[in-house]
Amino acid sequence: MYSQTNDRQVMNYKLYDSPPSGNCYKVRLLLTQLEIPFDRINVNILQGATRVPEFLQKNPAGKVPVLEIQPDVYLSESGAILAYLAEGTEYFPRDNRLLQTRVLQWLFFEQYSLSPNLSRPRFFISVAKQQDKFAHLIDHWRNLGYQALDVMEQHLEKYAFFVNDSYTIADIALYSYTHVASEGGYDMSKYPAIQAWCDRVKSQPKYIGIKE
Amino acid sequence: MYSQTNDRQVMNYKLYDSPPSGNCYKVRLLLTQLEIPFDRINVNILQGATRVPEFLQKNPAGKVPVLEIQPDVYLSESGAILAYLAEGTEYFPRDNRLLQTRVLQWLFFEQYSLSPNLSRPRFFISVAKQQDKFAHLIDHWRNLGYQALDVMEQHLEKYAFFVNDSYTIADIALYSYTHVASEGGYDMSKYPAIQAWCDRVKSQPKYIGIKE
C-alpha cells in the first residue's frame, strides 16, 4: 500500500466531491491509480452546498474538489492537489526540473485555456439545462475551447502523451473535461489524435471512468 | 550573481513580453528580484504577433509570456515560469511539500478565478477601447472577479501575505492584475486589506512597477 505520511495511519483522505465535476474526477482518478484509499463526501453544488459557512471554512473559494489530508488540513485547486499527490511517483517526472515545469505548464494551460471553456457549456447544457439563457456566453467559451483543443490536437499528432511521452498528471488533468467535451456541444470528430490519446488514457492501469 | 544552470553562461534569458500584460509583468518582477539578467523582446499582441508561425513554434498556445532559457528551449504559462525560476529560492518555500502546495493553490486560483476576470475587462476597457461591444461579457467577468477579490480580502484580513506569512511567488502572481484592477473598472475602495497588501508588495526589495 502506498503510504505518504503518518496521518495515513489515522484517517482516510476525505474528498469533498461532486460526481459530474471534471475537476473532482481528476483527483478520484489519480487517487485510485495511486491506490490511496479515500472517502467520498458528496457536495451538492446545484443546491449551493459549496457556499455555506461550513464548506467555506474548508475552501474559501467555495469550490470542489477539496481534499482533507489530515483532520482539518484541506487542499483545494485540482492542479495543486494532483501535484501534491503525484510528487515522488511515476505520474510526476522526478528529479527533472524542466520536465516538472512542462507538466505544470499543461496544468495551467488546462485551467486557464481549456477547462473553463469546456466545463461551462457542459454545465449549462447538460447539467443546469439553461442553454438558451446563456447562449452568448456559450458561443464565447466555445470559440476559446476549440482553440485550446486545436493546440492539444497538434501536440498529440506528434506525441503519445503530453510530457516525456509517458502518462502523467498532465494527461489526467487534460483528459478530464476533454473526454466529455461533447456534453458541452463540442464536435470532437475533427480531433482524431485527441480521440486516440483518450483511448490510451482509458487503457492505463487502474483507470476508472467519470461515473464510477 | 544568481546562476541557475550552465546555459546562463552562454546567453541571457529572453523574455517574449508584452508591456501591458500582467502575466508578463509577473515574470519581469521575479527575474528582477532574483537578479537574473534577461533580454526583453516586445511582442505586439494587438497586431497579432502571437499568432504567426514563428511565435507559435515557441508557444503553440499563442500567448505571452514565453521565456527562452536556453537556445530553443521555451517555457510558457506564467505560473509554471514562476515556479521554475523560484525553485530553491526564498520566493517558493523550500523542502516543505504542504507549503509548496499552498503556493500552487494560489497560483491556480489566480489563473482560474482571478486573472481572466480582471485582465479581460481591463483589456477591453483600457487597451482595446471596446467596452460597449463586450458589455455583457464584462458584466459576467466582473461578477466573478469580485468574488475572487472577496476571497483575497478575507485572507488578507488575517495574514500579511498569502502563504507562510512571507512574500512568495503566490503574492507576485496575485498582485499583478489586482494592483491594476481599477483599469478594468473595479472599485477597489472596498478592499482595504488588499490595498495594504499591495503596499507591502511594493515595499519588497528590488520591486519594479508594471510600467518599468
Automatic annotation (TrEMBL), chains A, B:
Family matches, as PROSITE patterns: GST_CTER (PS50405), GST_NTER (PS50404)
A Pfam family annotated for this UniProt entry: GST_N
Gene3D superfamilies with a match to the protein in the record: 1.20.1050.10, Glutaredoxin (3.40.30.10)
CDD domains membership: GST_N_4 (cd03056)
Domain GST N-terminal stretches: 11-93
Every GST C-terminal domain range: 96-212
InterPro entries: Glutathione-S-Trfase_C-like, Glutathione-S-Trfase_C_sf, Glutathione_S-Trfase, Glutathione_S-Trfase_N, GST_C, Thioredoxin-like_sf
Homology family: Belongs to the GST superfamily.
Protein name: Glutathione S-transferase family protein
UniProt organism field: Cyanomargarita calcarea GSE-NOS-MK-12-04C
Lineage: Bacteria, Bacillati, Cyanobacteriota, Cyanophyceae, Nostocales
